[in-house]
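Cast an eye over my tokenised protein here and flag anything odd:

===
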Amino acid sequence: MLCSNCRSTTLEAITFIWIFEFVLVLTLVAGYSPQRVEELAKELQHKWSLIFIDGDHEAPAPLNDTIVCEPLAEDDALILFHDLTSPDVAQGLDYLKEKGWNTIIYQTMQIMGAAWRGNVEPVKHQPDPKINWNLPKHLEHYSVSGL
């Protein structure tokens, strides 16, 4: 998983790359995205089936993170995005959609999105029925899970 420019009192502007090797094993690697992601990929010579992008919300950072992560994804892979309320973050999801990935939006407070390919299926999500959800204009062309 990728989180660039996470906000923390001790780790301001540090990127975290979370790699789930097994359900109970988590490796946390500090560095700046997307450079550290590329370095890690070269070091480990590994691809991932799950990538989570949550970081710098200003262009071109989200798109750059996506471009670097896409070739590191397995043939059967899911890439999750957080904070799609930002049009700049949505550029990453748009990029994958244009490259032929399947996509869906999760109607949550900050709006999440998933892009997947191969033998993977994203979880289904039911938006809170008590909330009158409205998608921002830049996301209106996406399907919404549970609707």
About this structure: The chain has one domain: 2-139. The CA atoms of residues 34 and 68 lie 7 Å apart.
